[in-house]
Design goal:
homodimer, 103 residues, alpha+beta, 3 strands
Chain lengths: 103, 103
DNA sequence: TTCTCATGTCGAAAAATATCGACTATTTTG
DNA sequence: CAAAATAGTCGATATTTTTCGACATGAGAA
């Protein structure tokens, strides 16, 4: 039994906690599933495809960006979001590798 | 843009939402990291290795079991938990595969 | 510049989740 | 059987998260 992690968790792992928390919400999952492969969507698009208000969608987009799931790019007065599929795959693979080594 | 998921999400995906939500909590992450490879721990063990009360640890263990991350086995008056590493790897791999196909 | 559109932010309210002590059930020990 | 050990449940409280309307900002259009 490891007692090391009872109080503190390495920063590297906290990043994954943040990632999983971001993915573990149904509304955010809905937002992510709205993206077609390689597609770019702005806040208005995503709000229309949702049942939530714009500030709320904006809030979820912020969390998804901070977790590294989405990429944010400003174009004129619009802000476009894109799914960071490659980065996401890489990070999930890291977790799988860890589990495989400590199985 | 897919509008299909705006309201409803397939049951198959909700299961992943539950999984990620379970993994996306620092206290639960601490609990999971306490397990050494293949190790089996009971509630008392895990409570001692934690800063939380026993009912709270019990609560987190319940969520982790419901999400399929831990396995629960009753032995006499003790209840032992084991990390379902294989199942976890398999499910994360499914997500990776989906992302790869829709990249 | 003035107007409109696209977003972000802020504060408050609502909803969900986490936390704990007290109590209960069950099993083993003396 | 009585006592101790192990763990689940319940109800109340605390904390966190979600949600929205109102306001602020900044960029393009008229």
């Amino acid at each position: 039994m490891r007692k090391t992690y009872a109080q503190t968790i390495p920063a590297e792992w906290q990043q994954y906690s943040q990632l999983f928390a971001a993915l573990g919400d149904l509304e955010r999952q809905r937002i992510l599933l709205t993206f077609e492969p390689g597609e770019t969507l702005n806040v208005t698009d995503l709000t229309r495809a949702s049942s939530l208000s714009r500030p709320t969608v904006s809030h979820h987009l912020k969390l998804l960006c901070e977790a590294g799931v989405l990429e944010r790019e400003k174009r004129g007065r619009e802000v476009h979001f894109r799914l960071r599929a490659d980065a996401l795959i890489e990070r999930l693979q890291t977790v799988i590798d860890y589990l495989g080594e400590h199985r």
